[in-house]
Design a protein that fits this description.
Strand content: 15-25%
Shape: globular
Number of domains: 2
Number of helices: 17
CATH topology of the largest domain: Spore Coat Polysaccharide Biosynthesis Protein SpsA, Chain A
Radius of gyration: 24 Å
CATH architecture of the largest domain: Alpha-Beta Complex
Distance between the termini: 66 Å
Length: 429
């Protein structure tokens, strides 16, 4: 109160289902339109000023690290694929994959997004409706707690979970488990060799009504150690209509879902140009791809930046035998600018864009393929499973349009594009 902050302490008891208890707290916060909800577990040691510090951070989701109750190793409720957790340049806060709810703050904006995208339910004997925000379930064969899954939901809704590592909460069990997360992290970095940093870039994945395929991609990407950033492009009305389904996705760390005004593969990639054209590379991958090679992304990016050329993976398709443009594709943005400033030329929708790159490559040799890097394209021609997105894309009307646009591009635009690409390659050599 002295700090000008109205606070209301809520202690929930006699609920053996922790997910439901946490969901009830969200319901109360949303009902009373609180600015923030701060979870503080009852078995932690903390100081009142730590709460004020957490509230002062100008982000929507932020927490403190909590030491886990174990003597076998010094562990914390913070998850990230490696020890090089990114630091936000504006706030100085760490940006891990997830932070437990031991001491975690959620803003009104984050609470409302979670509430609106989660399934409603009622507990027997309870009049008010709750939302199934917190959950606990197996993921890739391992039981994942409700706090880790919360970070996944928030990431799918466009919220980054931040970590203030300047404070570490002690955990009270059979004894007090105290620690210093920041010091532990520095020791861990020193004892684990750091991978050479890649040039900055972004994967771009246009998607339409394929939440299941996105889930499959993210699981495969996590399994293969994907470490580069990416964005899934979804038309805004579709994203709103299917918010609950998208919220269930376990989005890979460093990836997000971006709403677009545009429909169609090429139009979405054009709209996303401000996200990647100031980076050093852009990667194109589609939602029915499944990475199989460990660190597939790093291999393709390193190859593209080393040689200054477009680099494509193997996509496992016999139909694409003899073609070099298939699968996941990485382009140096300097080469994109030489091609005219767009990944794919204007006027195209989806079909024939690979023919554009094949035609340019035939004249310039600007494309390399890594057959040893498998990003399998599970296209309906392979799986036999045809959906509405595929039917619309490969409609007779779209096919005729693509052929006409490709012919016009080849006659009018390709010659100048080829000359610019040749000049770029000569200067890059």
């Amino acid at each position: 109160m002295e700090a000008g902050i109205y606070q209301r302490e809520i202690f929930l008891a006699y609920d053996s289902i922790i997910q439901n208890a946490r969901n009830d707290l969200v319901r109360m916060a949303v009902k009373h339109d609180f600015d923030d909800l701060v979870y503080i577990d009852g078995d932690e040691e903390w100081r009142p000023e730590w709460l004020l510090r957490l509230l002062a951070h100008k982000v929507d989701v932020v927490g403190y690290p909590v030491r886990k109750k174990t003597d076998e190793a010094e562990l914390y409720n913070v998850k990230y694929p490696n020890f090089d957790i990114p630091v936000d340049a504006t706030t100085g806060l760490l940006m891990p994959e997830s932070v437990g709810t031991g001491f975690l703050r959620l803003s009104r904006k984050a609470l409302r997004a979670l509430w609106d995208s989660s399934e409603p339910y009622r507990v027997l004997g309870q009049e008010e409706e709750s939302r199934w925000i917190f959950d606990i379930r197996p993921v890739n064969g391992f039981l994942v707690g409700e706090d880790t899954l919360l970070s996944s939901k928030l990431r799918a809704l466009g919220f980054q979970t931040y970590l203030d590592a300047s404070i570490t909460c002690a955990h009270i069990g059979a004894k007090k488990y105290a620690g210093n997360f920041a010091a532990w992290l520095q020791r861990a970095k020193a004892t684990h060799p750091k991978e050479a940093p890649l040039p900055a870039g972004l994967w771009v994945m246009p998607s339409r009504k394929r939440v299941g395929m996105l889930d499959r991609f993210f699981k495969a990407a996590a399994k293969t150690g994907t470490s580069t950033r990416g964005v899934v492009l979804v038309e805004k009305n579709e994203l709103i209509e299917n918010a609950a389904e998208y919220a269930k996705l376990k989005v890979l760390d460093g990836w997000s879902i971006q709403a677009t005004e545009a429909e169609g593969l090429v139009a979405k990639i054009h709209e996303a140009e401000p996200l990647y054209m100031d980076e050093q590379w852009v990667g194109i991958v589609v939602d029915d791809c499944v990475p199989e090679t460990q660190q597939w992304d790093r291999i393709l990016v390193a190859e593209a930046m080393k040689h200054g050329r477009i680099v494509c993976s193997n996509d496992g398709s016999e139909a694409d035998a003899g073609r070099v443009v298939c699968g996941a594709t990485v382009m140096p943005t300097a080469l994109v600018r030489a091609m005219g400033g767009h990944v794919f030329p204007e006027g195209f929708k989806h079909l024939c864009v690979d023919d554009v790159l094949e035609a340019i490559n035939a004249e310039t040799g600007c494309v390399r393929q890594r057959l040893d890097v498998m990003v399998r394209h599970l296209h309906p021609w392979i799986t036999g499973v045809v959906d509405d997105t595929h039917r619309e894309t490969y409609s007779k009307q779209n096919g005729e349009h693509a052929i006409q646009v490709f012919k016009e591009w080849k006659n009018k635009t390709m010659p100048a594009t080829v000359e610019r690409v040749k000049k770029y390659l000569a200067e890059a050599a």
